[in-house]
Structures are given as C-alpha cells and as structure tokens.
Amino acid sequence: MTSVSPVSPPAPAAERVARLRAAATRIRRSALIMGEVQGQGYIGQALGVADILAVFYAHGDGELRLRPEDPEWDGRDRFLLSIGHYAIAFYAALAEAGTIPLAELETYGSDESRLPMSGMATYTPGMEISGGSLGHGLGIACGLGLGLRYRGNPARVFNLLSDGELDEGSTWEAAMACAHHELGNVTAIVDVNGLQADGPTPGVLRTEPLVDKWRAFGWHAVRVDGNDIPALLDGLDEIREHTGGPSVLICDTRIGRGVPFLETREKAHFMPVAEHEWQAARDQLEGDQQ
Known about the structure:
This protein is an alpha/beta fold and 290 residues long. It has ten helices and seven strands.
C-alpha cells in the first residue's frame, strides 16, 4: 500500500507563517528590552500575546489595513487595546509595523516618553484609545462600528480584550448592542490566559463556556490556540467570511510564552523578573527559535 505524505501548505502560505513567527519573536524580544528598561512590566502577558499581535501588525504580512507613516489615515482598520496594561506588547507591535521607531522603545515608561506604561491615545501614534479600567473597549468598538457603517467606510474594528474583561457587565452590554446592530465590521479578540490580578480566572469568576456564551449573545465565535500562528490565520479567514454580524476570536494563550522559565513562574499577573534574568530570558527566547 502506497504511503501518502502529509500535505504541506503552499510555499507562499508557509513563508508567510515563517515571517509571522519571526515577527512574534521580535515583539517578544522588544518587550523584554522594554521590561529591562523599567525593571518591571506586564511581561508575562506581552510574551503570551505576541503571536496575536504579530498576525495583525507584522509589516507586509499583518491582518490590518493601515499606513504606518500615517496612523490617522481615515481608511485604516481600528485596533482597540482596551487592556491598557498590555501596552508594553503593543508598542513592540507598533515598532514591528513601522509606526514608531524601534529605537524609541528604550524610552518606555520614561519622563516625556510617548510610551507610557499604560496605553494612552493622546501620547502614542497608532494607539486608538486609552486603556485602564477594564470593560470599556467593546462599547467603543460598537460605536466606531456604527459610525463607520453610517459613513460608508469599509474599515474594520478589532478590540483586543482580556478574559478578565469578561467579568465586566459593560462588556456584555456592548456584545448585545453589536449583535443587535448586526455589526459585521466588529471583531473581538479575547486573550484567555486564565490569570487575573486576584488569581486564576476560574477562581475569580467563572466565565466558561465562552464559545456558547458569545454565540448566545448573537456572535459568530471561533476558538483557537492563540500561540499557534496557522490556527490564528485560519480563525481570521473564517471570521472574514462571516459578514452577517459581529465575530469573536477566542485565543487561549500561555503567559510567558517563549521563555520557559517564565512560563512556570508563580504570581505571573505582574511578573517579578530579577535584574540578572532579563538577558537570560532573551537568551532562552533566541535559543527556542534555533
């Protein structure tokens, strides 16, 4: 009996995946550099969400329609970071896209920097909204989606939110509104890393079953491994084909992804990293890519 080899993806697709993986590694490396500048930061979340941000922001390969040199371009897709403490990862993604200079990342959290430790739209090019108190991002996404539709603007709205934001009633009010208005131009991306400031998510407030809940609210729901770039691309392809209402991409991620000794660290919501560990983390990240 003749054996059949597994079918490999077409070369262009495989090459794009390779480029996106490289972009995710650069985002992780940049986040570690910024973390070392301040000696602190939400580095675990940054490492965990890097694959998602690479898929959206990698220059020439990302999902978003944007002009890096003109972050206020009216035709751009809007990407809302309502989890403001993820800014350390988002700045790395903006540098990857070419919106801010790579060298500027070393000013992270410093006086007069355009890169404060929590995301602020008035400071940073490409930052659509100010983050902070959780639960307001999806409401803004709903309003933006309605406004763009009324204006006949085909731009899409993406809102990256955390599983902790699903504890907030305002998130579900916005979910109902998006479904009511059949906003096919709105996509929520939920980073499900299973950890909140007060402990593991199931112990703080149980939110599962997430797919069933979003579908009950009228959303097209897709769940993927958020650290698997081909799975992320497949999920976005499925969402792109759904135009009758809002969609949500539920992404299971691992805090500290790419740096094994950080992946298993306790108290990882605001992860303590010793001075000597930053370079060790970068070395481990580079070794994982070889």
